[in-house]
Amino acid sequence: MNQATTGTPLGANPARGDAVAMRGCAELSIVVPTLNERANVGLLVARLREALARIEWEVVFVDDDSKDGTIAAVRDIAAIDYRVRAIRRIARRGLAGACLEGILSSSAPIVAVMDGDLQHDETRLSAMFEIVRGGGADMVIASRYQEDGSADGAMTQLRTSGSRLATRLAQSLLKTPIHDPMSGFFMARREIVDAVAPRLSRQGFKILLDIVASSPAMRIKEIPYAFGPRLHGQSKLDSMVVAEYIGLLIAKASGDLISTRFLAFGMVGSAGVAVHLTALHALLSRGLPFAAAQTAAMFTAMAFNYSLNNAFTYRDLRRRGWHFLTGFGLFAALCSFGVVAGVGVSSLLYTNPSRWWVAGLAAAAVGTAWNYVTNSAITWRPR
């Protein structure tokens, strides 16, 4: 009988105690999304070794192409510890997407997500693991706001107030029966995430909220923990994260009929309409013929929309440097058909100077529809 039939790994000899033969299958996978966290990687792995001494575990660092050498630091550790793995993501960003890729690449039946900045208490992992493994829950959330939990000293008063407001919005809008839907520290059976993965957003920071909203029948338990201060590096929270969070709430409240990206594209388009009408009115006031004024206004709005969509809507696929310029050229080429159609439609509707804005809105609607369909598929396709 050959080795493949007996299940013995090729090249492994249990009698010799080969390393491959002696490795146990991981019971728990910990996914850690990173962006410029080099100084924290070694400290986190050391803490995991101590906290999970009685559990077969692996840790998957999913790095968004950090510039500080984070991925090199992970690989240095992985060279001497087979439980440490690295995924380097190129030309795409976003904590939710990084978490999802890490979870889907994991090998254990139970998976945890935690930050790489040492603010999450790794000593809670073993208690969370026992609950899920024992069948007490499908998901365990480490909560800052449950009794005995705390975020004191780790967040500013403004950030604390914002976090609590976001939590109340999630609870009221999505009816989530949990204290801390904004937590980035949780554990679940991997099959739960596998089932809802196609419906999860790759944008934003709060994948937990997305999973919970997409799995209403899931059994959830919370345990308290103290949210610690960051030791090294800088927080990734910014105004874009807030906007993405609001978009996620609306998307989930609509039953995913409205995607987060489409909503963002619509918001940018609304601002673009204002730019378009402002430019059109200004040019008409200067005596330009309507067709010329309309064309110039549409190209002005197009440049505005491209820049804002690149920075916001397609943040995870953002084009930079030379790619920004080539992207604009591609965007302009695709939108040229929309410009021609928009000018034609608006010229037909422009029968009364006092109702110039009706013709302007018609052109904007035609251009926006074309822009979204073509550029989502071509200009900002994953590279």
Description:
Helix content is 52%, strand content 10%. The chain is built from 14 helices and seven strands. The protein is α/β, with parallel strands linked by helices. It has helices spanning 3-6, 19-22, 38-51, 70-78, 95-105, 125-133, 157-174, 190-196, 207-214, 239-253, 260-285, 290-313, 322-349, 356-377; strands at 28-34, 57-63, 84-88, 110-113, 139-143, 186-189, 220-224. It has two domains: 3-253, Spore Coat Polysaccharide Biosynthesis Protein SpsA, Chain A; 260-377, no CATH class. Helix 3 links the parallel strand 1 (28-34) and strand 2. Helix 7 (157-174) packs parallel to helix 10 and helix 11 (260-285) runs antiparallel to helix 14. It has a seven-stranded mixed beta sheet with strand order 3-2-1-4-6-5-7, with helices on both faces.
Helical stretch count?
14
- Principal-axes geometry comes out as elongated
Strand order of the largest sheet: 3-2-1-4-6-5-7
The CATH fourth-level homologous superfamily of the largest domain: Spore Coat Polysaccharide Biosynthesis Protein SpsA, Chain A
Q: Structural class, from helix and strand content?
A: alpha/beta
CATH class value of the largest domain? Alpha Beta
SSE string, helices as H and strands as E: HHEHEHEHEHEHEHHEHHHHH
In percent, how helical is the residue content? Answer: 40-55%
What profile does the largest beta sheet have? 7 strands, mixed
In CATH, the topology of the largest domain is named: Spore Coat Polysaccharide Biosynthesis Protein SpsA, Chain A
Q: Number of domains in the coordinates?
A: 2
Beta-strand segment tally = 7
Q: What number is the mean pLDDT? A: 80
- Can you tell me the residue ranges where pLDDT is under 50 for at least 5 consecutive residues? 1-22
- Amino-to-carboxy terminus distance: 46 Å
| Beta-strand fraction estimate | 5-15%
Determine Rg (CA atoms, Å): 25 Å
Second rung of CATH, namely the architecture of the largest domain:
Alpha-Beta Complex
Keywords: Glycosyltransferase, Membrane, Transferase, Transmembrane, Transmembrane helix
Domain GtrA/DPMS transmembrane: 265-380
GO molecular function: dolichyl-phosphate beta-D-mannosyltransferase activity
Organism: Mesorhizobium hawassense
